[in-house]
Amino acid sequence: MQKIILLFLVCITFPLFCQGVSEKWASVFITDSDMSFKVVPYKDPQADAYASFLPITPDTGFAQLTVYGNGNKPSDSLEVAYAMGVVESYLTNKMIFDLWSNSKQLWFPGPHPSENPKVRDWLSQQSDYLDRMVSKYSTTDPYWKEVAFVRSQGNGLIESYSQFANETSQLEAWELRTLLYAVDMMDLVEASNVTFSEQSFVGKQLMKEKQSKMPTHHGQKFNPFAPSCSAFVKSFKDGSVATGHTTWGIYLTMVRIVKTYRYENKKNDPNTPGWAISFSSYPGTITSNDDFMVTNAELIITETTLNVYNTSLYKRVTPKCVLSYMRGIIANRMSSSSEQWGQVYSRYVSGTQNNEWIVVDLKKINSGSYRNYPKNSVMIFEQMPSLIKSKDVTDFINSKGYWGSYNIPYDTQVWTDLGYKDMEHKFGPDDYSWSDCARAKIFNRNQSLVTDIKSTQRIMRLNDYLHDPLSKKNPEYAIADRSDLADQPFIMGGIDTKVISSSMYQNNELLLINGPTQQSLKPFDFSMPQFSYWKHYGIPDVCDYPWFVYDLFSEDK
C-alpha cells in the first residue's frame, strides 16, 4: 500500500496585489521506491517537483498552474514524473472534482455510474502492451523512455488524489482515468461498440429527461465527447504570423487551467528539446485537450478534431498502440521542428482522437518573410484509424495569406475514407466540404481584414449569425459556435479562445479568454430557464471574463 506523509504547515503565500489573490506553492518529495511521498505546502527547489497555483479570478477566467521538475535529477527519473503528478493533484483536486461533477451529467447520466466493461477491458489490454514495451525498450529507445515518464506523471496525478480530496469529493480510479484519457474516449467508446445514442459508459439508457435535452444533427444523436474547434494561422505584412484557436465544447467544461510544465531534468537531454511547455488545459489531465500548446523549442501546436462517420474504420483500432494524449505529449517534448513533431506523433497510432494537427515552426517563420516563408514552416498532420497523412501547407499560406481549420480533412483520401464525402452527398456542403462549408467561407472572406493581433482576436470570436449571410441564421455556422442560441438550444459552443504570434512569443506572451463569445451576442446565462437544469460547479452563471495575458513558460526567478 502506498504510504504518504503530509506535513500540515502554515501555507506560505506570495501576494499578487495586482490581482488581489495569493499564489500558493507546494513541493513533493518521493521518499521510497514504491513512490511514497511527502508534501509540504511551500516552495522547495530541492524537492522532486514543486509547483505554484493561482485560482480563477474575474480578471483571468483561467486558473494558473506551473509545475517544475527537479533539474538535478536524471532526465528519465520516474520519481520526478510521479512527483509532478502528485503536486498537481494536491493543488487542483477541488477543480478536478468540480469538472468531474459537471461532466458526468453527460458522460454517465444515472444515479450509480460505473466503468463500462468493454472500455475497461480495452484499456487494460492497452496498459499491458505498454508495460511490455516499456520493459523491453525504455533503456534503449528514447521514445519509450518518454512513454514511461508520461505514465508515471499520470499515475502520480490519479493515485494521490484520494489523499487530498475530502470525504465528499472522493473519486474512483476509473473516474480519474476518464478525465486523464478524455480526448481518446470518444473513439474508444465507438471502437468498443458502446454508443452514446442508446448507452452511456454505464451501459444503461440515457435518462429520458436528459436525452430530450440533447440535440440531433442529420439523424445522429449527440455525443458528449465529440469536439469541434476553429483554428487559424495568419501571416502579417511585417513577417510575423499569428495562430488562433477557439475550442467548441460543452459549457459544463469551462473549469479551466492554463498550465506550464518545466521538465528541468530534461533541459540538457538532446532527445527532449521541448522540455518546457505552456498550454490551455483542464483539471485532471496532463495534456491540453483543446489542443493549444507552445513549447520552448519555438513550436506552436494546435488542432481541430475530425469525425469518423465511416465507423467501419474502428475495426482498425487495436490496444497495441499509444493513446493520442500521450503521443502528443511525447511529440511536444521530443521535437524541434514541425517535421519531427509529425514523425514522433505518427509512431504507434491509436486511431483515437483523430485530428487535423497544425504545427507552426517559429524558427522557420522568423527566417522567412511575408508570403515567403520557407518549406515546412507550417505543416498539418491528419489522422484516421491506422493512418496519418502529412502536408506542408506553407505554400498555401504564402499564396493565400492564411490557413483555416474547422473539423474537415484537407487531404482527399482522409476526407473520403472518414466518410465526409458520403455525408456531403447526403446532406450538402455546409458541414462536410473543406472549401464550401460555412467556416471555410467565413475565414476566406474575412482573413484579409486580419492585420494584427486585435483583429485576430476578433475573427476567432466571430459569430454574427443573425446578419451574416454565410451563417444562414444558424449560430453553429460561425467561427465561435453558440449552440445555446440554436433552434434546438444546447449548452455547447465556443468556450474559449487562445491567440499568439511570433512576436508575442519573443515576449513570452499568450492571450486567452474563457467563455462563450459575447462579441455581438447576448451573454450565455446558466440561470435561464432552459439551462438551469444543468449543475455547473466552479463556473459562474455568466462567464464574463476579459482577455488576459499569460506569461509563457513561467520561468522560476
UniProtKB/TrEMBL annotation:
Its EC number is 3.1.1.-. This is Phospholipase B-like. It holds the Pfam family Phospholip_B. Residues 1-20 form the signal peptide. Keywords: Glycoprotein, Hydrolase, Lipid degradation, Lipid metabolism, Signal. One of its GO terms (cellular component) is extracellular region. It is an enzyme of class 3 (hydrolase). It comes from Anaeramoeba flamelloides. Transmembrane segments: none annotated. GO terms for biological process: phospholipid catabolic process. GO terms for molecular function: phospholipase activity. Belongs to the phospholipase B-like family.
